Amino acid sequence: MALSPLFILYIVIVFSFIVTTIFMFKPKGNETVHIIFFWLAVALSCLVTFINATSLPIEETYKVVAAWCGLLFSAVGIITRMITGKTNAIANVLVMLSTIYGCAGYFFLN
Prior knowledge:
By secondary structure, this protein is mainly alpha-helical. It is built from five helices and no strands.
């Protein structure tokens, strides 16, 4: 059985997400490293949400809207990060939830 290219891309994204999450929550790390991995996690959540939303048929509008709603977690995480101005576990968790929501949506909405 052949794997679809989109599924292989999702596997790569999930692996990247796991590595990003480990470094995002690594204690006593350099603040620059935390910032870089936070924004990488935001980029991954945007990528996952985009792939999820555009892979759905346009006739299923409610599923497309539900897929795009995954970015709300990232938006709140970014706002939280900007308000505090430093590494914040709540912002990290919200960005993680956005990526998990996008991955779960791909497997359950399609």
